[in-house]
Give the backbone structure.
Amino acid sequence: KTSKRLTGSSNLVMAGGVALNCVANGKILHSELFDNIWIQPAAGDAGGAVGAALSAYYIWYDSPRVVDSNEKNSGENNQNDKMSGSYLGPKFTTKDAVNLKYTYGAVSQVYDNFSLLCADIAKYIAEENVIGWFQGRMEWGPRALGNRSIVADPRNPQTQKRLNLKIKYREGFRPFAPSVLAEDAGDYFDIKISSPYMLMVAPVKLSLRTKEPERYSELPLYERLYHVRSTIPAITHVDYSARIQTVHKETNPKYWELITEFKRLTGIGVVVNTSFNVRGEPIVCTPEDAYRCFMRTEMDILVIENVLFFKKDQPQFNDNDSWRDKFELD
């Protein structure tokens, strides 16, 4: 309120580590103090480098500043996203994925048609398989946004527990985020703006919620946790909120196509999205990282570009548990 009073601006831009507090961001959003809110996707020290570069560009070099007055933070369109969806990291090829056979003896299937790949993966997700999804450039920032993600079916009440205990190796109560088609976000969540960087928390729509048990708020944590709270229980937290990523065709057409195929099969334009790593480790970057993480966990299927790997087809993975001690647990 103070910043609004001092500036009179209807727009709010936030950066720095505090801007990663999705719950606080959601409260600001729902206060309706500002017409538009934009948060740096790599808010924190990494994003400070961008600010330093822009300061030098505009102040030291006196470069002109051009503002797109037509830009609108809309859940329906993300064409003006100058961060390119935050997909700014390294990328790899189908050939890089196929070459895993030389290092690990990996057995794979190559698709010539990406749309056919999406149709098959959507079917596998609907059949309750957990997928390692590796496409294009790696995300810049702390969130996996559909290029280095583990994806699963949000309709299955067991998805959250399975992902936590058998793949992420962390406490079973930790919530997971939904990736939702940007054009459908309002059908599932009480949100009116885009949230492409998974930096907003918003409530699940009342129409999707199930009836609460008596004295729900007084129940022990795990009884509340495993109550099926909505028709998309794997991404509905105990307080009926969700940390939302809106997926836009303009910035991530491949991920958008996968979710669109899942919607065609199930009628649900949402998938569970968590970062492609185990607890304490950084998000995978290379095909080698992805394959090792895939083989060390109970993921069912790995997709790297146009290459599909079934866990059941892979040779024995000769690894020990020392990797668990390499990174400090979060």
